Amino acid sequence: MNRYLNLIVILLFLTACQDDSFETPNYTQKIVVDGWIEQGQPARVFLTLSAPYFSEVDSVTLRKLVLKWAKVTVIDGLTQEILTLKTNQDYFPPYVYESTTLRGIIGHTYGLKVEYGGKTVTSTTHIPAIQQLDSIWFKPEPGVDTAGYIRILFTDKPGIDNFYRITSKTGSQTKKYTPVFLPNLDGRIVDGQSIVLSISNEKDLNPLLFNVNDTVNLKICTVDQPVFNFWNSLYQELQNTQNPFAAANMNVKSNVKGGLGIWAGYGVSNYRIVCK
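RESULT FIELD:
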């Protein structure tokens, strides 16, 4: 599943589970937001409605939950733009609200307002300064000739609460980036230090080595603390749901007021490496 479908299904499940009862006769649907903006890129927002726990989740159901008639506004200081609904076959369902003229700028704060069916949800995010890598290289797994890890070295900026999220894509067949294994880093624990991270792909929350000769694109993203809290709590929740001995706490920390999901600003540094 792609990023959009993953987020919808997860939030549908977690929201419905917040009721202690297995019955949901008075269930009230909420607006689910999956939106982001990067420097130099348009704002993009996917919208759906949540659904009760026992709802069937398939491609037909998901299409019915998509909001295609909402008013979506992004505000950058004194300027604002109403986003346009477009189709994008890189995602499923393939409907995304996108800005036409507005582009992300490092250091700017962006407000989001979604109006639909008499409901209004809002959020605010910030695009932090980017984090450059000092170096990047491929290291084969000991005893394995055909696969290994990508390693990165960077120096955290001292005295600043930095938060990071790392995504990747392999090859040229897809435009979608997906989280690497252990994608979220709280820079406060390494304040001002130089750190080395081993990067692997992710499959079902498990590490997956990159193959020799893979061309890998990495996005090193800086995010503000509310965005980090969302992705980190969602990742922990996913791990809990796969562990029969762990209890799901259903405490995904959304930064969307009046709804669910995430509105995220990313300061992005892009890298490409051939694994040799």
